[in-house]
Amino acid sequence: MDPRRASRTVSDPKIRQVGFFAPPPDRSFSGPPDPISTSTPNPAAATTTAAAANTSSPPPISDLSPSGNSLSPVMIPPPRHSSDTTHRPVPFPPVSPLRRDTLSLTVGSYNNNNNNIISSSPTASFYDESKGITVKVSPTPAASSFPGGGFDLTAVKASSVPASGLTTVSVVKTLPPGFTETIVEKVGGSVEMQNDLPANSKPLKERTSKAERRALQEAQRAAKAAAKAEGSKLSATTSGAVASANAKPTKATKPSSQKNDSATVASSEKKGGDRPPEKDRKKDAPHPRMQYDDKSRVEKAKRRAVVKQTEARNRVELFRHLPQYEHGTQLPDLESKFFQLDPVHPVVYKVGLQYISGDISGGNARCIAMLQAFQEAIKDYSTPDEKTLTRDLTAKINSYVSFLNECRPLSISMGNAIRFLKNRIAKLPLTLSESEAKAFLQSDIEQFISEKIILADKVIVKHAVTKIRDGDVLLTHGSSSAVEMILLHAHELGKQFRVVIVDSRPKLEGQLLLRRLVGKGLSCTYANINAVSYIMHEVTRVFLGASSVLSNGTVYSRVGTACVAMVAHEFRVPVLVCCEAYKFHERVQLDSICSNELGDPDAISKVPGREDINYLDGCTNSENLQLLNLIYDATPSDYVSMIVTDYGMVPPTSVPVIVREYCRDQVWI
Amino acid sequence: MVDVQGLVNELVSKLRRRKVEGSRATARLTAELLRSVISQSKLPPTNQPAALIDAVRDVGEKLIAANPIELAVGNIVRRVLHIIREEDHSNTRDAVEGFRLSVGGDNDYIVEQDHLNLSVAAQSSLCRPSLHALLERSPDSATTYFTATTEDDSEEKRKSLDPNARSLEFRRKVISAVNDLIEDINTCHLVIAELAVEHIHHNEVILTFGRSRTVKEFLCAAKEKKRSFGLFVAEGAPKYQGHLLAKELAARGLQTTVITDSAVFAMISRVNMVIVGVHAVMANGGVIGPVGLNMVALAARKHAVPFVVVTGTHKLCPLYPNNPEVSLNEMRSPSEVLSFEEFSDCMDYRIGTGAPQLHVGNPSFDYVPPELVSLFITDIGGYYPSYMYRLIADYYSSDDLVIQQKPAS
Q1: Which of A149, B208, B320, B370 could form a disulfide with B385 if both were Cys (CB 3.0 to 4.6 A apart)?
Q2: pTM of structure
Q3: Inter-chain contact A613–B240, Cβ cutoff 8 Å?
Q4: Among candidates A43, A148, A61, which has minimal Cα distance to A100?
Q5: Parallel/antiparallel/unpaired status of strands B204-209 and A648-650
Q6: Smallest Cα distance from A604 to chain B, Å
Q7: ipTM of predicted assembly, 2 dp
Q8: What is the DSSP letter of A538?
Q9: For residues A326 and A648, which has the higher predicted lDDT (pLDDT)?
């Protein structure tokens, strides 16, 4: 017991970070002092725990599961494992407090998770869900009572995860009306599947990952389940042993993958539960990006490329690992190819051209354009013969993505959105007809756009506006859509404040923002980034947008942001970074060099509106002279006072928590 | 004299219209103008140095008023005043010694006493106040604190002996000293460049900001000594002098990369040393440089990169800055950062309630506090910022620190 408990505490600190908000008092259940927890009401719990004890399952994630129900969160809702179980009303009062004692003594907490699920879910839907499997696992009706045995654990977790998302992030949630139907439909399909393939737990897992589906599932089949539940509860204790024995093969592997912590749930779920944990953990880390100094890979990529790019002649040595191409050369070529037969869907093609020409820029705009293009492409898609939609469509999307990547390197937010879409495709139930699947995906994309981007922005605005007071002087850099919305909203609320827009070459996006703000009647000051330490004296708040927030708290944003944040920090002015949570990424980065994007070098030599500045006109061919146009930079987290996101206002240290709890593997909706 | 007056007015108007760019050009023009003032001003037969000082001070006052931001003008005026004073003192000392030698046998006690005191006064004012001198000064020589009148009287006496020759000699000496000063200004970057090899090693990556001739020579000197190093040049908006510097350095064979000012923070983590030229160095060791320099200095401190300032001594200003971001700054035209065609309607005062809706901040200078500067490399060696006040004592006399205020007499 002791070793088990110790290892459980290992995972504890990770979770404790959430506790940036008052930690729930009873989360200490994993520790000895407070063994009695409220959330083990079901007698079945005891049986499962006993069963689990036999299997000697390693300690899992859900150690804080019993907590969380209550005190949640001022800003961040409690972690999903706990919340899924806990904020549903617990149907039974804690029957015997002592039970917790036995539980904590005998069991790895992964079983606790199961207990909670059983106990807290108001209906017997679980039993039903697991029915198909329990048939396989143990013939006794009682077996169905403990999901720990028969029911695929990861599936439970996957399905439960979104539930937490749903309830805790309720601010954001307004489900589109059409959405529920599709879910119901899909759920029905999955249930059938389950029954058809009792031996294969995989499809079940893939299908049950959504909160809404799950909730509906429960409601739909409550009645059906009730009958079975009755029988199962009675003989819970006896069946425990049997079931545990039967369940051993699956359990032995599954819990081990869980011990990696919630992070791995995603991947293990995707891959199927029977994978050694080390592999899972490896899968877990973000893939290394393509390094452009790797000649063979670049050659390979080139052969596949749709966009013919000429390499820049004069490359900056430090950035050989990044793509350095001549800009502006591809556009005419691509435009002429528009009407040719091409593997790329015309809408995607159009978006790609808009990326190249710079018509669409900014993280949100690019992401929305891409998703909408994919939506169109899915609409027009038809599965070729002898292929399955899941595989073929994924391949198609992959080719689109690589095309867009050639047009302009993908932003992190786009990468996240693509990951979401692919995951959705992969999880499509096989029973869906093609048209249904397409409709389903389209609505998924629609929902992603509306909830993760548009609604998230609204929430951010709502939060950030509270930080603007009368008489403030707000400084912003470049042009961020979120910051612009905040400023306009505050202005609409009648707050009296002044805006300082700091702009940097070569894009001078701040001028566009200035135009729009002045048009709306805000009083503005415009300055070059060099003047930032002059202007910072009068500033009371700095609002910055971000392209992404990495999990070490680094803010990856338009180049110049770091300078502004640094000067603000020096002048003791608070820096608020406004960023939607879908842009968060689990990557870490310390400098702006390892990963960045290089813009058109010629933009450096030309100064718009200043014809007298032409020193560099003829020099671009000089061997010794290079022009470096960085697009992004990384702001260290020390300079950031606060990150305003759709989950609330958090310090940069809480970013990894949000990444893990919410952004991991498309818990999105 | 009309001639000189014309020259003065010309430079004044140039300064006022900001036609002269760069502290070095300003310093040289000022020194040349003062040289012609010295050579052509009509001096009274008596009390020449004082008259000369007054003349120079008058001109200097006009020049400084023409462009109070250009601290090099004031520096040069003070340097010239200091030269005159030094020459005067050494003249007096020579005269005293000569007089004592010639008068030696003649025993007039009163005269003797008088000149002894004078010489003590001259020496004590000439020498730096060393502990030794302070100890040596005997308590009974209270008379060493001479009034100006007695000094003048004695000079008058002395000059009456050989007024013409002495006056010519004095003027010649002053002019040659001013010529030395001009020479220093012209060649200081070469002297500084000689120090380059001591500070730049192989494969170094250096970042510079804006354009400075001193920096250019410094880097080229290192290059000539076969040191190979990489160079990042931040362009230095809104003047974009960095482009020009990069072009010149690339032409000299240095591996140069131009970056935007906003990318300074991103790139500085790969930089070994920041070398910049500045506009002026204040007495506390803070520097005034092209706008954006403070940002670079802060980024350098964040990454523990040495921030080295190369500067000629003519940029050394004996004033202590007070709120230098505002008081020693000037705003340039908004058209450099924002095109008037697009935004002129918002900048117009007549629309709305009187205040324009849109302001444009375009300062030309930035103040970097001394704690952000790692090292000064000057034509007289390398110094730490905290030592700057002492260098100032070498180059300026404390009487001249305030030029605007006319002496009471």
Answers
A1: B370
A2: 0.70
A3: yes
A4: A43
A5: unpaired
A6: 7
A7: 0.83
A8: G
A9: A648
